[in-house]
Amino acid sequence: MLGLGVIAAMVAVQFLEVGFNTMLKAAMGKGMSNFVFVVYSNALAIFVLLLASFIFYRKRSLPPLTISLVCKIFLLGLLSCCVQNFMFTGIGYSSPTLASAIVDLTPAFTFILAIIFRMEKVDLRTKSSLAKCIGTMVSILGALIVTLYKGLPVLSASSPKEVLLSQQSNWVLGGFLLAVASLCLAILFIVQTWIIREYPAELMVTLIGSIFVTAQSVLVALIAEKDPNAWRLRPDMELIAIGYSAVFVVAARSVVATWACRIKGPVYVALFSPIGMVIAVAMGVTFLGDTLYLGSVIGAAVIALGFYAVIWGQVQEEQTIENRGICSVESSSPIVPLLENKGLDI
């Protein structure tokens, strides 16, 4: 049941991210600064997380917080700040399509880093490890198919419309920034897992991390943003996007991802990134009247197949660990001869 709960929570997080991307696109179209947006959304998230922490930990005791742990959370905040700023700036230099293609490589980066840091054990002689390796690669392939292959229209909208992507001059720089953001996100999942397994308090880790991100993003915005008018909040889509990001993305998504890292590990969490693209396509067809293309259908099927393979491998590994634990308990229990028991009864 816990495994199903993690899957449901991570899928819900992907729905929240799709809604956030829609609001962010609308706010950026009205001239909102990416750097200022990161500052305000994380600052507002501090108050949300502070209230949630006060309610949740009111009758619970927190583990002791050490200086070394605070330094690790500072590193976590720095990685989060880099991910947000690099991602938004990279999209500005390139396009959302290129961003989707590169960010979907995050599971591969995370899987490689997890093997390097011995957070994932790979034994290709076992079916579980082989399924996880193949499933991860298949999911990435499916995400690239959805992004890069269009194909014939399967379901056409009543009033088809062409989406014109803004042509930016420096795609090389944009792609480089997006690649750095994806790598930082993969490292973030690794560090996040280290921290939460040492200090199992998701709300507190997210709260302290948001404080560090806010302070770091203020420095970045003061250096990068030259227009003082960019700091003025307008009561339109910009304010709605900031509030949505603070509550559902910075706060809720971060807490759920941290919790899932502690339960399942960083590779499992990173694997849900390609699913967000499938959700975006489905919501676009259902609610926005977008045209469904053959590439989206094939890519979604490939992602589902890869995702199922990884989930199956994860379940097999957990069952193997449980069986080993049961066998070790049974082997360590004392065996009393039958005649000795009868002698005690006489």
State the helical fraction.
Answer: over 70%
- Shape assignment: globular
Calculate the terminal CA-CA distance, rounded to whole Å. 48 Å
Widest β-sheet, arrangement of strands: 1-2
How would you classify the helix and strand content by structural class?
Answer: mainly alpha
What is the succession of H and E elements? HHHHHHEHHHHHEHH
Instruction: Note poorly predicted spans.
Output: 158-169, 338-346
Average pLDDT rating: 79
If helices are DSSP runs of H or I spanning 4 or more residues, what is the number of helices?
Answer: 13
Beta-strand content:
under 5%
Number of DSSP-assigned strands: 2
Largest sheet: 2 strands, antiparallel
What is Rg? 23 Å
What features would you describe in this structure?
With 346 residues, the chain is mostly helical. α4 packs antiparallel against α6 and α11 packs across α12. The longest helix has 39 residues. The radius of gyration is 23 Å and the shape is globular. The relative contact order is 0.20.
Topology at a glance:
Elements: H1 2-29, H2 34-56, H3 67-93, H4 96-103, H5 106-116, H6 127-148, E1 153-155, H7 171-198, H8 202-224, H9 237-264, H10 266-270, H11 273-287, E2 292-293, H12 294-332, H13 338-345
Antiparallel strand pairs: 1-2
Helix pairs in contact: 1-9, 1-11, 2-8, 2-9, 3-7, 3-8, 4-6, 4-7, 5-7, 6-11, 6-12, 7-9, 8-9, 11-12
